[in-house]
Amino acid sequence: MSQALVIHAPHDLRIETRDVPPLTSGEVRVRVEAGGICGSDLHYYHHGGFGAVRLKHPMVLGHEIAGRIIEKAPDVSSLEIGDTVAVNPGLACGQCLQCRAGRVNHCSDMRFYGSAMRNPHVDGAFQQELVCKARQCVAGRQKRPAALALAEPFAVALHAVSRAGALMGKTLLVTGAGPIGTLVAIAARLNGAKEVIVTDILAEPLAVALRAGADRVINSREDPEALASLERSVDVLIECSGNEQALRGALDLMSPCG
User: Fold this and answer.
1) Closest Cα partner for 65 from 2, 128, 17?
2) What pLDDT does residue 141 have?
3) What is each CA distance from 169 to 166, 178, 192, 196, 207, in whole angstroms?
4) How far is Cα 118 from Cα 249, in angstroms, rounded to an integer?
5) What pTM did the predictor assign?
6) DSSP label at 193?
7) 86, β-bridge pairs
8) What distance separates the 2 farthest-apart alpha carbons in the chain?
9) Under DSSP, is residue 224 helix (H, G, I), strand (E, B) or coil?
10) Distance between terminal CA atoms of the chain?
11) What is the mean pLDDT of the chain?
């Protein structure tokens, strides 16, 4: 038996006991030790879903998790008991056209932890013990589960930076200092950006971004002049706020061919 965090309706979150299924071929049992709260988890909690996606029955939340292998099926050779792992929350079907083409991230039949897009929903990973496919687990040299739980959101940041192209010697502007924006700033620093500037309208996340490695932070609500001073000097823009005004304003700061 395992305790799990189950959403029933907006603001109706309960800790419940769930059966843990026995292992089958290719599976492992993970003792979950750390988890990150995604914006989608908050939408389920506050609104019962997002967009057209709505809860139709109780569902375990969570998909940004890490933990330790405590059991494995006999045919699993890629992992060992005690390994600290990050768990990929998406399980591709392996059969659709996209999977057969090697684009498993575009699987047309993806099962994603803590998602109400299907009915019945796919339970999430905020539970004490999780049975998953061994191929979903990545053993990390970083042994702290709390750090490995950031692997899933950090993958978003790494993908954004890879789409931006070479950053060496360039000035990068990140609009939005939430978790993804801050992780983008870290990824940009690792990829050689000359200057990383992060904007937001709140002081607290900007302080976190500065500690995480941003060269400059700008509170665009309190200091619009500082933002305006960047006009035509930004080589690369990565928009992480989801705010239309932030995007429109940042486009005015781009250098030619930015």
Assistant:
1) 128
2) 81
3) 9, 25, 7, 11, 24
4) 37
5) 0.90
6) B
7) 66, 138
8) 63
9) helix
10) 54
11) 96
- Can you list the domains of the chain with their CATH numbers? 2-149 (3.90.180.10), 154-251 (3.40.50.720)
Give the type of residue at 45. Y
Tokens found for residue 39: 């914006």
Query: Which segments within the chain are labelled E, that is strand?
Result: 2-9, 12-18, 27-36, 49-50, 53-54, 59-60, 64-72, 84-87, 90-91, 111-112, 129-133, 137-139, 171-175, 195-200, 216-219, 236-239
Q: Are 79 and 139 contacting, i.e. CB atoms less than 8 angstroms apart?
A: yes
Q: How far is CA 37 from the centre of its chain?
A: 9
pLDDT tens for 167-193 read 999 999 999 999 999 999 999 999 999
140 vs 17, 94, 106, 154, CA distance in Å? 29, 24, 25, 14
Tokens matching residue 107: 């699987």
Contact 240, 199 (CB under 8 A): no
43-52, 124-133, 143-152: the lowest-pLDDT one: 143-152
Q: Which two tokens stand for residue 189?
A: 């620093």
